[in-house]
Amino acid sequence: MQNAIAIIPARGGSKRIPRKNIKLFHGKPLIAYSIELALKSQFFKRVLVTTNDKEIAKIAREYGAETPFIRPEELSNDISTSGDAVTHALEYLQTEGEEFAFFCTLYPTAPFLQMEYLVEGYERLKNSDAKMTFSVTSMPFPIQRTFNVTDDGRCQMFTPEHFKTRSQDLKEAYQDAGQFYWERVDKEFSDIPFGKDSIPIVLPRELVHDIDTPEDFRRAELMYSALNQDTFDEWNNLKKRLNKKQKIIKFSSGNIYFMSVGKNIGYESYGKEKLFLRPVLVYKKLSKTTFLGIPLTSKHREGSYYFSFHYKKDKTSTAMFNQIRVFDIRRSEYLSGHINKNIYKNLEFKLQEFMKLPHLKDGEWPTRAK
């Protein structure tokens, strides 16, 4: 498109979360998420950050934004608004002779903003006679049922006539999501911005988070990691692949499978790249897909934790009782073999001995198995 400008207002005077706009959010300055999305969208001929802070300006440039001016302090205090900063940036662009049909105000505290909604905002604005499109989300509770607390500590409903109205019979309400505001340059508001000249772009509530306090910041990081599990959980793709498996292998006690179990299960694993395999003995079947399994190692071990046996010629395997756990058969890559009834019986006996608690006197606590 390239007939639009992105403006990101980011002053340096945050009080409740000091240096909020450049505070590391999952290892990256918070403002970087908005800059990167704006650049990736390829909507904008220029991505500007307006700030009064030299450190914020430096970081913004490192992530690809322009900082052609330092915002005056009178537009950066606690009573100035984002609108004041954006107006100042637009005036600067006019003095430069910059021509553009649309501009988008992106907040620097919007790591949850997704491309599809930014695109929808532009498309809805371009194909309408509206002045603005902006991000909103639905209220989690009917506003008609809300109340304030009076000076004497009592309740006072804002709309008492709806005290008995069912929630499903009340009109849904929306609030500003504080992520983006697309505006048309050649049109002025004839109403307040949250009025007839604006089109709301509705975002799901899980993508909208005010980040005003340290608690908000921690909660936002937790939600972000939950929504982006492919990034923060290296095994998430494997988990999704397993859940899509249609064919469930029939298995029974004594079978040995090579399983995708990951690096965290022990020092000996097979495979390459992200597919880490480990031989696991099926001890007890629990359900159609789960079983109590004992990981195996090819290294000889002695002691009550271990049981060595042969299930392949000239190859010793050792069951590690201290790693027994529940496995999902859908993680199996292939069947390696099985043990005979005598070996299974001996293994079961030794495992039961391993699991026994010693007889304790009053006041004693169990110790590690020897």
Task: Provide a descriptive summary of the structure in words.
- With 370 residues, the chain is an alpha+beta fold.
- It contains 8 helices and 18 strands.
- The chain has 2 domains: 4-142 and 154-231, Spore Coat Polysaccharide Biosynthesis Protein SpsA, Chain A, CATH 3.90.550; 236-355, SH3 type barrels (Roll), CATH 2.30.30.
- The longest helix has 15 residues, at 341-355.
- Strands 11, 12, 13, 14, 15, 16, 17 and 18 form an 8-stranded antiparallel β-sheet that branches. A 6-stranded mixed β-sheet has the order 4-1-5-9-6-10, sandwiched between helices. Strands 2-3 form a two-stranded antiparallel ribbon.
Keywords:
370 residues, Spore Coat Polysaccharide Biosynthesis Protein SpsA, Chain A, SH3 type barrels, 2 domains, six-stranded mixed beta sheet
SSE blueprint:
Elements: E1 4-9, E2 24-25, E3 28-29, H1 30-41, E4 44-50, H2 54-62, H3 82-95, E5 102-106, H4 115-126, E6 132-138, E7 147-149, E8 155-157, E9 174-184, E10 198-203, H5 214-227, H6 229-232, H7 236-243, E11 255-260, E12 270-272, E13 275-285, E14 290-297, E15 306-312, E16 315-320, E17 325-328, E18 332-338, H8 341-355
Parallel strand pairs: 1-4, 1-5, 6-10
Antiparallel strand pairs: 2-3, 5-9, 6-9, 7-8, 11-13, 11-18, 12-13, 13-14, 14-16, 14-17, 15-16
Q: Give the averaged pLDDT, no decimals.
A: 90
Low-confidence stretches: 264-273
Strand count: 18
Classify the helix fraction into a percent range.
10-25%
* Proportion of strand residues: 25-35%
CATH architecture of the largest domain: Alpha-Beta Complex
Instruction: Please indicate the count of domains.
Output: 2
Sheet bearing the most strands, described? 8 strands, antiparallel
3D shape = elongated
Cα(first) to Cα(last) distance is 72 Å
CATH homology superfamily of the largest domain = Spore Coat Polysaccharide Biosynthesis Protein SpsA, Chain A
Oligomeric state of this protein: single chain
Secondary-structure element pattern, one letter each: EEEHEHHEHEEEEEHHHEEEEEEEEH
CATH uppermost class of the largest domain: Alpha Beta
Name the structural class: alpha+beta
Over all CA atoms, what is the radius of gyration? 31 Å
Number of helices: 8
CATH topology of the largest domain: Spore Coat Polysaccharide Biosynthesis Protein SpsA, Chain A
